[in-house]
Amino acid sequence: MLITGGAGFIGSHYVRSLLAGRYRGYEDARVTVLDKLTYAGTLTNLPPSGPRLAFVRGDICDHGLLMDLLPGHDAVVHFAAESHVDRSIAGSAPFVTTNVTGTHTLLDCCVRTGVSRFVHVSTDEVYGSVEQGSSSEDSPLEPNSPYAASKAAADLIVRAFHRTHGLWTTITRCANNYGPHQFPEKVIPLFVTHLLEGRNVPLYGDGMHMREWLHVDDHCRAVQLVLESGRAGAVYNVAGGTELTNRDLTRLLLGEFGAGWDRVDHVTDRPGHDRRYALNAERIRTELGFEPGIPFERGLPETVRWYRDNRDWWEPLLGRAAGPAPARPAAPAG
Ligand code: NAD
Question: Active-site residue 125, yes or no?
Fold first, then answer.
């Protein structure tokens, strides 16, 4: 299996799960991780290479590299992306390059080399803000940030490669993930690391933006289920977690530290900030039997504990957040 973006947050969780034999039938699967190791990727997310794991540092936009690498791989699970909304506001070019051109390059090389399965990991953000009700897989794509637009564009190219070239593809569109190993620019690890450092946390606007949270382990199980049993060409929303406003999330995190609301700095809202994402995830439940397994009441304190216990993982990352966004962006959900 070729796993792109496998040294980032979600991709590395998927790889560690595979290597730990947690997906039945895949206990012997051999894994190649292809990752550019941008600011968001770190080898400290992966076990050392061994008989079942090979790591290749490279870019999904590199056609020649992919044509050399892909033969012999049965499946591609595609996590690699520029993934942070605030960075896409500060500078969107890498988002279009990696998320659109990179996905296209991968698809093209998969067709040319006869890869038999391609799972594209997308996001609920492609549907845009949903004031009421929920987005089904057939809802229109109305992305509002350059990040979401680049993911939506990639989704459409995946669809076209299935329809035009007959490539076996599936797309997952998941709600916000949380869990260990998430880069400390995203809201939960940003707030947790700020609180651990004795700093205040930055809350956007009125804090009433609504997000649904799913543990990364549940998302990865869903990706695996879709890889094994998904319908060719189908899209699967992945959700069923906990819906919270950013204010409520902040209150829960402050509670984990016994801290009060005086630790919150209210900061100017993000431009184009979607008020609410909400997914209808009936399809993956009824077709594939997916149910989330980790309740937020358990997953959140466990995640906070992980950051408390693993300073040596996140402290070195604080300094490497170079690029268009400020080093420690005031950056809630995305
Ligand atoms: P992440 O930023 O932690 O990891 C992305 C990885 O991709 C990094 O290791 C990075 O080095 C690598 N990468 C970036 N550009 C690359 C390139 N050109 N070539 C090769 N590798 C490259 O992101 P994440 O949160 O783990 O997200 C993984 C995927 O899941 C993304 O596609 C994202 O859109 C999607 N997703 C994320 C969430 C979430 O809440 N984090 C929710 C739904 C969907």
Answer: yes
